[in-house]
Amino acid sequence: MEKYKHVIKIKKIAAEQSIRLVEKTISKTAEAGNFLTNIADASLFIGRVAKETFSRNFEFKEFLRQCFQIGYKTLPLISVTGIIMGLVLTIQARPALLSFGAVSLLPGMVAVSLIREMGPVITALICAGKIGSGMGAELGSMRVSEQIDAMEVSSANPMKFLVVTRVLAATLMIPILVIYADALGILGCWGGANIKGDVSFVLFFSQAFSHIGFIDFLPALIKTFFFGAVIGFVGCYKGYTAGRGTESVGIAANSAVVLSSLLVIIVDLIAVQITDML
Amino acid sequence: MIKTQTATPGSAKAENTDQVIEITNLRKGFGTEDVLTNVSLKLYNGENLVVLGKSGSGKSVLIKCIVRLLDPDDGTINVLGEDVCSCDHKKLSELRKKIGFLFQSGALYDSMTVRQNLEFPLRRIKKDLNKNEVDEKIKEVLEHVGLSDTLNKMPSQLSGGMRKRISLARTLVVDPLIMLYDEPTTGLDPVTSDEISALINEVKKKYKTSSIIITHDIECARTTADRIIMLLEGEVYLEGELEKFENSTDPSIKSFFK
Question: What is the ipTM of this complex?
Answer without folding.
Answer: 0.86
